Fold:
Amino acid sequence: MLQTKVDELVALSKTESSLIKIAAKLHIPVEACLAIASVLEKAGVVQINYPINILEPPRIVFFGLPKIEKKEEEIHEKSQNILSTYTFKADNVPVSVEIIDFAQYKFYSMSLIELSVATKLFLDQVKESLIKEVPPESSDVADVEKMLAIKKSFYEKIKTELIKYSLGSEVTEILAGLLLHRMFGLGELDLLNKDDMLEEIAINNSKDPVVVYHRKYGWLKTNIYMPDETSIFNYASQIARRVGRQIATLTPILDARLETGDRVCATLSPISSHGNTITIRRFARVPWTIISLIQEPAHTMNFEMAAMLWQAFHYEMNLFVIGGTASGKTSALNALASFIPPNQRIITIEDTRELMLPKHQWNWVPLLTRLPNPEGQGEITMLDLMVTSLRMRPDRIIVGEIRKQREAEVALEAMHTGHSVYSTFHSDTAAQAIRRLTTPPISLPPSDLDSIHLLVVQFRDRRRNLRRTLEIAEIPEGTGEGILEPNIIYRWRPRTDTWEKISEPIRFYKEMNLHTGMTKEQIEKDNKKRQTILKWMAKNKIVQIDEVGKIFSLYYSNPDELYEIAEKNLSV
Ligand SMILES: Nc1ncnc2c1ncn2[C@@H]1O[C@H](COP(=O)(O)OP(=O)(O)OP(=O)(O)O)[C@@H](O)[C@H]1O
Ligand SMILES: [Mg+2]
Structure:
């Protein structure tokens, strides 16, 4: 429970009535003490008596605290197995989470910091006096940036008000955050949205609890409920409006990507027969880097594979990251993009800003598609942007995801005209990707496919909640005859959770040799050196995107020196 000066004042007022003495004991100015007492007087907790002799200071007399019935909480029997507890902050307010293992399911219990009765009453009164200042319709502003600006200025107002009471900076921050949540209509759902351990937040209807997908524990029931079907609908429409769309009886499905990168899918009853639904896929706030992908807990690929991909990015090979839904394609591609040398011009093309490049890549132009407006005008497609990008003299083009025939064709055209192209593509294995790319509806000619040098296959083991690079494969140089079979270089073995090199690369060596003149042995040695650098980075916790980017940019200006430093440091 949060202890505040308000509680101290209430406790003191039971035995001491001199305002001056109370203020001294609380270590706050007399005016601040009087201000707190005045708020508490409105709440009926204390009385302020002004003596007849006006030279004497007022006296504070304890009046009484109402008994607030404790809300019936979901109290779990002590025998339940608590798997984990942690806290995170939402607008400075500490939120605590307990993950509990029930026999049939796992449970996510979220609670805000608890306030005493006196502080609660105090805060209610402060809220009353501030309420007139809440901008009308503030929670309904369509423009996100505008809304954030309003929220920020209002937060400042709350803080200015609270500072009058000298409650101390920490308590002031927490109370200001709490007031902001209450007055700005941030529901519990918004609190969930601040927990970076959550990948997905789903509302199935108003009768069942909100469920979440936790990075570590998978699907969990929560102690949060939506009050009714209308609130779910309202929340969905609010999201729709923010992205200039609408959800209604005639258009009961909303599929939207928010500016934050989060993806939202909502459906209305009776399409979803148990009630209205909203599924939010949260965008990773801290971008993955090659080091965070290699290290535990992700452990998605090993150093040798990462070093090979580094060579591929260095020497401009084209590469697709493929895999199933949410297997980590975009995250892997984003992490790999840091391998691009810093003096190159990079153009990224996506539906929403998911890709984030390190600062050292200073010649980066991110482009974004746009949906048509409700009248059907103004659409900018992936294809429009791909064609445009070719006129912007890029060295490397990163396309968020290729879905359609024309997009695939333009990607190949770009490769043929000497650009390096990277993208993601939905399919489960390298062999399946080749099949899907060469048959309808994509129908690329098999003989053209060899412009793509490498395929990195991402895989998500839902049962064990693991994400692994399943395969790194080459597309063989096509003759255009027969079925193209990928050359699988690395494959993940699920049973042992390790990777095996199952065949030697062919094209990869050829391509490396073409660019550098290195022999197979030299290329292998170069791979080892890069591994040393990656291991050194991991050992020294160089994980954050800009730090990782900086090391790679150092590598490109002075590879040998960096290698020597890494090797020396690793051997101690
Ligand atoms: N290697 C990994 N280990 C653990 N979590 C990961 C890993 N890669 C990605 N994630 C998480 O998985 C979720 C989905 O990742 P991502 O968006 O990269 O997948 P995707 O395959 O591109 O999905 P989609 O099919 O929707 O495009 C994100 O929350 C991300 O942070
Ligand atoms: Mg993706």
